[in-house]
Amino acid sequence: MNFVVSNVNNLETIADVTQLEELLSRPTDALVETMQRVSGDILFLGAGGKLGPSLARMARRAADQAGGNRRIIAVSRFSNQQAERGLQEFGVETVRAELLDTEALRQLPDAENVIYMAGYKFGAFGNPSLTWAMNSFLPGMAMQRFADSRVVAFSTSCVYGLSPWQSAGTVETDPLQPTDEYSMSCIGRERIIDHFSRTHGTSASLLRLNYAVEMRYGVLIDIAQAVYNERPINLTMGHFNLIWQTDANAISLQTLDHVSSPPMVINVVGPETLSVRRVAEEFGQLMGKQPRFNGTESDSCLLTSGERCHQLFGYPSVSAGKLIQWTADWIMRGGPTHDKPTGFQVRDGRY
């Protein structure tokens, strides 16, 4: 079945996982143009997570549309064998590897372009040594191994700490204010990548991503499920912003055309500041439910400004209002989820 539509905002519903996966991996025209300018194979390090499979498939589709012969290679432990088979069937090569193993990292194929996605968040509070190894030590290993590549590295908005919700959100030049070991280890990742970028002249970019969402995972799913199942929602982290995962995927690949030494830093996020309370109330109206709350909104929250991102790549293709509509419909129809809460309410780094 062909699900392609000219404007995804015209979609009233996402029918099933097949259509969802097509949407998440659909390349934009701008990305195809980027692929025509940026040469070389693309290697994804840590591709087995929530974003990795759809991102690798999008790269495969964009590369095919751009023409030429380019390898797309996904590296992960691949504990989810179904995800690995799905990538292989799509034309993405897969490599199983433990990235903290120096010899395994050395044996990975060379690639002109590297998308670095490896990291450790959920469980970080209970395992600080692994957190620092994954988030700060491994990036240095990878930057030395791929010193001659372009490197696009995923980071997180958690490095900024909390900011007043009335503000426009933190910008890339604001001082970093970590509040816990997880966010400190993520700053470690950025500092190490910056160091080796300067030392070896490796062109890189750092993507401070804030809440990419799709129908199976994200802060909207967390809120929608709570409303639908009549569970109370904690309002302490009262505001947030987000971005449709398809847009985050396309932007991350487009930054291959914007890497530099020292690295370019960019917040990847949509333009809207959303209220947890108001989003829950909107879900309540769509679902015929009465949201339940506890706590009150704090003056601060995790909020970033996407102005630089929007200037470079344009506004996201899907609005927050449309994402809320899709999410409510998905949950009411019993659509599958990854069953992995985001922990968006967390204010002390205890993920």
Explain this structure to me?
- The chain is of the alpha/beta class.
- The protein has a single domain (14-332), classed as NAD(P)-binding Rossmann-like Domain (Rossmann fold, 3-Layer(aba) Sandwich).
- The chain is 39% helix and 15% strand.
- The protein is built from 12 helices and 15 strands.
- It has helices at 17-24, 29-37, 52-66, 81-89, 102-106, 128-145, 181-200, 219-228, 245-254, 276-287, 307-313, 320-332, and strands spanning 42-45, 72-76, 93-96, 113-116, 150-156, 163-164, 204-209, 212-213, 232-234, 239-240, 243-244, 264-268, 274-275, 292-294, 300-301.
- Strands 3-2-1-4-5-7-12 form a 7-stranded parallel beta sheet, sandwiched between helices. The chain has a two-stranded antiparallel sheet with strand order 6-15. Strands 8-11 form a two-stranded parallel sheet.
- Helix 4 (81-89) links the parallel strand 2 and strand 3.
- The longest helix has 20 residues, at 181-200.
- It is globular, with a radius of gyration of 19 Å.
- It starts with 16 loop residues before the first helix and ends in a 19-residue tail after the last helix.
- The model is unreliable at 1-6 (pLDDT under 50).
Short synopsis of the structure:
The chain has helices at residues 17-24, 29-37, 52-66, 81-89, 102-106, 128-145, 181-200, 219-228, 245-254, 276-287, 307-313, 320-332; strands spanning 42-45, 72-76, 93-96, 113-116, 150-156, 163-164, 204-209, 212-213, 232-234, 239-240, 243-244, 264-268, 274-275, 292-294, 300-301. It has 351 residues and is an alpha/beta fold.
